[in-house]
Amino acid sequence: MPELKDDQVEPQDDVVGLDLGEPSPEVMEYARRELGETEEVKCQTVNELRDMIYERGECQPHRMDDDFLVRFLRVRNFNVNRAHRLIVNYYNFKEQHPEIHQDVNPVKMNHIGEDDVMTVPPYRTQCGRRMMIFRLGNWDPRKYSMEEIFKATVIILELGVLEPRAQILGGVAVFDLEGITMSHAWTITPQVANMVIALMVSAFPMKTTAIHILHQSWVFDVMFAVFKPLLDVRMQNKIFFHGSNMDSLHQHIHPAQLPKKYGGTREELPYYKWIQSLSKDPQIVKEMMMLGYVLDEDMLKQLNEKHQD
């Protein structure tokens, strides 16, 4: 999407919530131009993908409705074979890593927010994309494992992909590496690297359009050496290194759409506030239940009240 001019960037999008409605005409034009999406293409490819899933039997999706399947088609530019491979990878990843998917209660992931290890601003980039910000230097590996960070990341991704415009536009990741030490580097095993790549590239229906690295050091070089062999040229070209130069970051993300910590003008939002807010939406609670997340009494109450209406 074309970037907005300075006088068009207005901080009016700081309400915590998901945009579950139809994308704007501008976003749909982007979908048509960049993804090849039209109503005719969408209808035809959704039916083809559904038939392929049934015929090949490589996975058993928990949903087979159009809205669910179109997520996978959008991220693969409506190529049915590639979308099928993605949905198979998605469910294989769930089976291979039950520790980050099963018996997970999103409400009990507050410690990730309290430690400011990751956050998702309620506002978007000037191009309309969601940002996920990771501050790994704030994570103490002695307190909890990398598994907890994966759990929190997957929850946010599963919630984010409910937004149709996120399915179309993709998202942006910011890794602030200030304060990382060798104790963090030792946690980056080849298995962890493969899991990260799976979530960002091959096993989740959300396109990562850019990765911004801040405050990298020689410790990062040790960590990145594990990842680099797993990244193809296309993915490497999406990674931008800024060090402590916020002006460099601002060439990609407008200051009006960034936290003050990064030379921006906006406030932060703790991770847990997302979960608290979204857990009050019955539609979102229902989706989380279908995905297998453990729901507390308040969330179930919201869902029951919706059914009674």
TrEMBL record:
It holds the Pfam family CRAL_TRIO. Gene3D superfamilies: Alpha-tocopherol transfer, CRAL-TRIO lipid binding domain, N-terminal domain of phosphatidylinositol transfer protein sec14p. Residues 128-270 form the CRAL-TRIO domain. GO terms for molecular function: phosphatidylinositol bisphosphate binding. InterPro entries: CRAL-TRIO_dom, CRAL-TRIO_dom_sf, CRAL/TRIO_N_dom, CRAL/TRIO_N_dom_sf. SMART domains: CRAL_TRIO_N, SEC14. Residues 1-23 are annotated as: Disordered. It comes from Dufourea novaeangliae (Sweat bee). This is Alpha-tocopherol transfer protein-like. GO terms for cellular component: membrane. It comes from the Eukaryota.
